[in-house]
């Protein structure tokens, strides 16, 4: 439906932006504007402003901007026509009538919706009758509570051939409408039509307004195939567009800042029943572009939950190829692989909500899942095979249409390939060293400190992370370097400033220089052509920052050893918004820069009493004031960031915060 601009203007005139926004955000007047806390990011200081005179809102923390319609789209996941329709109804503005063809289609959809609703009531009633005894027993075995059965309108299709058909005929519905609604099947050989769903637990599939548009039928007998049967495509129902439970998940997803995506509707129902309302299912279809965009309207980084068996991992890998081209700044996916081949329903039945939340807290970013898929079994024992892996990753990354995200992935994978190739080569050298032990070819030089020029290789097994002298902020330097690797776009934005900072440890300086060189000087070269020339200290520190994965026989990551980045900056364990990480990153750089200013002040202060001119004295006073002001600002900002970290962790619930320090902002090494 195309709405003329003057209709949109009339709606805007009757309903100010502040009134629409004020239903979700507590606003206070500030001059000609209204101010409030961002509904998109956790914060303590208002950065969200509404201007009724100019007819827009603007959020400085997220960069989001728009009018009344855009706000509903951003906060409730509505499409533009849905937002227009809702606000038009509130304001009493009459929308234009669709053309004759569209009116005819709308009448057909309304008629089919009535038929499907009648079928839903029939299935609900059947569950309560003697014909539903087996289904009620199945419901009990699945531990579905009465409130859940009622909320999701769960029913039962009787075992007879045409139970629904006879019921609808008795209500005056003709067979053609039943066929169009996907409820009965007409054989091509002329035999009588029959019910599509028989002897199945029936789960209504609802649209964004809660109207039943289709069904999912779960077989109750072990021998009945297929196990799950969905309605066919109809005028009402399009699998590639829908998300099961989407209409219930909207509000919870926006409130919590995340949405869980599972494979089946019974899994979604189990998660909902456990108290996690922000959950949807994809109805068993592969991800479509429409579903991807719709999930991003719920949350910037949905959590996709798959079984941890081979089938689940294979399904996750298929979804990667669908998602990759559509990645954009601030929008991605995280993946959860459940243990022992369990699905969400089984896991919740065994360990309750806490068990499921523990797995959710271990979600893996899409970039890591893609890396694992391409490298786990890839041979890299020859230059040609190294080049083949590099080309395969490069081809995949080039599918990302967003230029900024593409560059971030390119840098991330260049770093990882360098580390992978270097580690592989080191194993070969270590094996050669072990075979020729005693020839004095290598000396123990952890982090390159010791004999030689700093590029000597350490003895096998001797690599230990040394203590970090140099003051409280040395650990913060590690966090900054780790974030540069974890979030390459942050490093790209701050590269020149980082290179200009004076880091306390030689190995930090070496890592910083090599990281900059890999991102700039060798950007046009293949990884396999330059990785051997990188300072070995770079790879040792990279491993200390990000650790190594321990996998089980099925290939599932069961332990992450040595991930000191997340130990030092613990809020990363809870998938904070990119804007929060970026704010922290710039704050950390400011703190390291402040240390340099203090060193300069100390050096200037040592001159006092000896030979110091008026200009130097004024510089000392000015620097002293600037440092004092910055320290006061840092204390305030750190308190705000710590409070935001608490809110981010709270989203994951008590189960996810066990063993996690209260603060999320690192201060010491």
Please give a structural write-up:
- The chain has 4 domains: 5-91, DNA Primase, Chain A (Alpha-Beta Complex); 99-237, DNA primase DNAg catalytic core, N-terminal domain; 378-566, no CATH class; 569-657.
- Strands 1-2-3-4-5 form a 5-stranded antiparallel sheet. The chain has a 5-stranded mixed sheet with strand order 13-12-14-15-16.
- It is of the alpha+beta class and 669 residues long.
- Helix 18 crosses helix 19 (488-500) and helix 18 (474-486) runs antiparallel to helix 23.
- Spatially, the strands of the biggest sheet line up as 1-2-3-4-5
Strand content: 5-15%
What is the β-strand count?
18
Q: Describe the largest sheet.
A: 5 strands, antiparallel
Specify the structural class.
alpha+beta
Radius of gyration: 30 Å
Mean pLDDT: 81
Q: How many domains make up the 3D coordinates? A: 4
Question: What spatial form do the alpha-carbon principal axes imply?
Answer: globular
Continuous helix count: 24
Terminal-residue CA separation: 59 Å
Please describe the topology of this protein.
Layout: H1 5-14, H2 17-21, E1 28-30, E2 33-36, E3 48-51, E4 56-59, E5 65-66, H3 68-76, H4 80-91, H5 100-128, H6 133-141, H7 146-151, E6 155-157, H8 163-170, H9 175-180, E7 184-185, E8 194-195, E9 200-206, E10 212-219, E11 228-230, H10 246-256, E12 260-262, H11 265-273, E13 279-281, H12 289-298, E14 303-306, H13 310-323, E15 334-337, H14 344-360, E16 364-365, H15 366-375, H16 383-397, H17 403-435, H18 474-486, H19 488-500, H20 506-519, H21 536-546, E17 548-551, E18 557-561, H22 564-568, H23 578-605, H24 614-650
Parallel strand pairs: 12-13, 12-14, 14-15
Antiparallel strand pairs: 1-2, 2-3, 3-4, 4-5, 6-9, 7-8, 9-10, 10-11, 15-16, 17-18
Helix pairs in contact: 3-4, 11-14, 16-17, 18-19, 18-20, 18-23, 19-20, 20-21, 23-24
